[in-house]
Backbone:
């Protein structure tokens, strides 16, 4: 038994915040943001929109595109760094919103690598015969954990959700997966606050050593690409579409240069979405599928990297 993608979906909140809007909020410029990151605008959730609301919109469209109903889903995995609450999991809340009950539901916390972690787990559940139709979602409301007076972080992130329904298949969809973490880098990218004694202790905002993240990301993006390609006995030439985590166009460009992969084969949404953490890969995937760019039979390489540091790759036939 193998697993494959049956359907994709995504959702972006209505409000768009441009670099020019940010120029009025912090000491920055459109030129700096575009030049250093490639980002021009990002979507921002409404005050009453939670990660589970974004997840619900993306999930319902992925389920419909898979030709299924919510009742066919037998496992829900939500990758998020910005859950609705400390507990229950955003996956359980999403389950209730979908009007289904009984199947397992849990969150994955691997920050910007969350979606490739979730997809690897979905694959394992299906291949082990433990689930037939798995709903995986990356959903983030980063706008809630940004210090909007800190120009070094607030210009880089956005809100959104992307979803995939994975299903059992006799032909391989997922060809190889590889996940990593190195907790020695925990302090390089974090929200170090915690809830204790009725209040938040420590900072509840994103803190980042941008340069360290940048260097690390380029190195592991190249490394994990070779790992999954080797596992599947394939080469860079076999990749039709490369969907890296959309954090910074310079990280993405440096990676394709190192891999000697033509830039046209890389999916780029960072300009319009900014960094949506666990949502960035499924958002880029769904946009490209909806646009008819990615077609059935294409070979895709998905790669995530983020806080932890965590990183990983999934090689698949769409
Ligand atoms: O999902 C993973 C999450 N994070 C990432 O992927 C981020 C990875 N890192 C990056 O994307 C880049 O390192 C950044 C975009 C964060 C920064 O780019 P950089 O080329 O590494 O710039 P820098 O850190 O060298 O900063 C250069 C200057 C600094 O000023 P001084 O000290 O040289 O005078 C900053 O204070 O740019 C200044 N700066 C800004 N200026 C205008 C920092 N943020 C801004 C800003 N607008 N928003």
Residues:
């Amino acid at each position: 038994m193998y697993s494959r993608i049956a359907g994709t979906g995504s959702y972006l909140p209505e409000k768009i915040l441009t670099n020019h809007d940010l120029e009025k909020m912090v000491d920055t410029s459109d030129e700096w943001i575009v030049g250093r990151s490639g980002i021009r605008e990002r979507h921002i959730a409404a005050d009453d929109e939670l990660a589970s609301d974004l997840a619900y919109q993306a999930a319902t469209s992925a389920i419909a595109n898979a030709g299924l109903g919510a009742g066919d889903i037998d496992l829900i995995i939500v990758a998020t760094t910005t859950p609705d609450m400390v507990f229950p999991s955003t996956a359980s809340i999403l389950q209730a919103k979908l009007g289904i009950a009984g199947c397992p539901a849990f969150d994955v916390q691997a920050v910007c690598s969350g979606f490739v972690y979730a997809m690897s787990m979905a694959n394992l559940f299906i291949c082990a015969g433990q689930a037939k139709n798995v709903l995986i979602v990356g959903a983030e409301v980063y706008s809630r954990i940004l210090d909007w007076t800190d120009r070094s972080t607030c210009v880089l992130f956005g809100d959104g959700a992307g979803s995939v329904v994975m299903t059992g298949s006799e032909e391989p969809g997922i060809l190889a997966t590889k996940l990593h973490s190195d907790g020695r880098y925990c302090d390089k990218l974090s929200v170090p606050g915690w809830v204790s004694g009725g209040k938040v202790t420590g900072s509840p905002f994103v803190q980042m050593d941008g340069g360290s993240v940048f260097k690390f990301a380029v190195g592991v993006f190249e490394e994990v690409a070779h790992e999954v390609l080797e596992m599947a006995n394939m080469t860079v030439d076999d990749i039709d579409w490369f969907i890296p985590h959309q954090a910074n166009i310079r990280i993405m460009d440096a990676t394709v240069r190192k891999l000697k992969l033509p830039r046209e084969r890389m999916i780029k949404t960072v300009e319009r979405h900014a960094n949506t953490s666990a949502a960035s890969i499924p958002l880029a995937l769904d946009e490209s599928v909806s646009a008819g760019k990615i077609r059935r039979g294409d070979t895709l390489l998905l790669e995530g990297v983020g806080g932890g540091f965590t990183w990983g790759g999934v090689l698949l036939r769409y």
